[in-house]
Amino acid sequence: MNNLEFNVLAIQAAKRARANGISQSQIAAALSVSQSQVSRVLSGVSKRHTRLVDEICIYINNMHEITPSSVLENSEITDAIASVWDGSSGHAHAIAEVIRSLSAFEKTSHIAQSKNDYQEDAR
Fold first, then answer.
1. Nearest 5°: phi and psi at 50?
2. What are the tens digits of pLDDT across the range 107-123?
3. Residue 37 pLDDT more than 70?
4. Which residues contact 95 (CB under 8 A, 6 or more apart)?
5. Rounded CA gap, 41 and 59, in Å?
6. What is the reported pLDDT for 1?
7. Local confidence band at 67 (pLDDT 50, 70, 90 cut-offs)
8. What is the rounded distance in angstroms from the CA atom of residue 8 to the CA atom of residue 80?
9. CA-to-CA dists, residue 111 to 97, 102, 105, 114, angstroms
10. Which residues have a Cβ under 8 Å from the Cβ of 44 and sit 6 or more positions away?
11. pLDDT tier at 19 (50, 70, 90 boundaries)?
């Protein structure tokens, strides 16, 4: 992705966030990054396309669009669950707990990635 495409992507994401009433602070808290990192991405100031750019865009795009029906329409998710679920309610509960626990893992990995991005930007 070249700089022009990146800037267009960032500006579109910023407009979408404003239109949906999503603040930079809200995005930062959800992704466990600083508000200044979010601002840098949404202003197009960031020098390169990083995973954080993708995560911010995904968050903004999906903030109000994730519904049970949209989850059911995602074949990757439904196929993964079908491949491991034995059909019992106990097993369903266990799988749900594993999925929910990924939230904590993602926050930890966001912090680590943010530190790496910061260190790379500082170079």
1. -120, 175
2. 555 455 555 555 555 55
3. yes
4. 81, 84, 85
5. 13
6. 59
7. confident
8. 34
9. 22, 14, 10, 5
10. 6, 7, 10, 11
11. confident
Which tokens go with 13? 């994401």
Shortest CA distance to 23 belongs to which of 54, 50, 48, 59?
59
Token readout for 8 is 């267009």
pTM of the complete model: 0.51
Closest C-alpha among 60, 67, 70 to residue 20? 60
> Running DSSP on this structure, what letter comes out for residue 47?
S
Amino acid at 51: R
Residue with tokens 């808290």: 29
Over residues 40-52, the pLDDT tens digits come to: 889 877 667 788 8
What secondary structure letter does DSSP report for 39?
A: H
Under a CB-based contact definition with an 8 Å cutoff, are residues 9 and 57 in contact? yes
Rounded Cα–Cα distance for residues 95 and 82 (Å): 11
Closest CA relative to residue 53, chosen from 66, 63, 43: 43
